[in-house]
Specification:
Blueprint: E1 3-8, H1 18-32, E2 36-41, H2 53-58, H3 63-74, E3 77-83, H4 91-100, E4 107-109, E5 116-118, E6 124-130, H5 135-141, H6 145-155, E7 163-168, H7 176-192
Parallel strand pairs: 1-2, 1-3, 3-6, 6-7
Antiparallel strand pairs: 4-5
Helix pairs in contact: 1-7
Length: 194
């Protein structure tokens, strides 16, 4: 049994999107396999955007971010789900990571300041990104740069390993069979907690 945290990064709190279906399918399958589940819906959180280095380094996180940090600490495995917007993660999700992954929580600078201690080591993660374009176009032509950034410069940098990715393309193409297959794959990943 693993402690699994689902970070639902779709910024629209008023409508249900395919990202929400992914979160529900993963959670249901993981629960049926006796994993413990918690969820953060970023669109429902109330937090400011960081505007200074001093606030990032020394500012006090708001209550919603403190609660999210406690959930991240609790988790053995984190699932991050978001739609591709303008070739990147939505700004609200990026703002969440900036708030939550602060020095002292995600990283700690060693004495002398020449290296960092990864404070979230021992956790694994999976990134699931939905998009309108075919996934292979994003992966090969656009080099999946937002996924690489989240994987390498945020999660791995703070100690997550392994960090796996799932790209789900053509979500607006009207191909229900492809979306059903994608959700079946998500259910499998939920059962095995990967």
């Amino acid at each position: 049994m693993r402690n699994i945290l689902i970070i639902q990064g779709h910024p629209d709190a008023k409508q249900t999107h395919f990202c929400h279906a992914i979160a529900e399918k993963y959670a249901s399958a993981a629960h049926s396999a006796s994993h413990a589940i918690q969820q953060i819906t970023v669109a429902e959180l109330d937090f400011p955007i960081l505007r200074t280095q001093q606030d990032f380094d020394q500012g006090e996180p708001c209550d919603d971010i403190k609660h999210a940090q406690a959930q991240i600490k609790w988790a053995d495995h984190v699932l991050v789900i978001y739609p591709l917007w303008l070739g990147d993660m939505p700004a609200l999700l990026k703002g969440f990571f900036e708030q939550a992954f602060r020095p002292g929580f995600a990283l700690e600078q060693t004495e002398g300041g020449k290296s960092f201690t990864k404070l979230l080591a021992g956790k694994s993660a999976r990134i699931v990104v939905t998009m309108g374009m075919p996934a292979f176009v994003y992966r090969w032509f656009f080099k999946a740069h937002t996924v690489k950034n989240l994987k390498r410069n945020i999660l791995t940098f703070c100690g997550f390993s392994p960090v796996n990715t799932t790209l789900i393309g053509s979500v607006y193409a009207g191909n229900d069979d492809a979306l059903y297959d994608a959700l079946s794959n998500i259910a499998h990943l939920g059962r095995i907690a990967k």
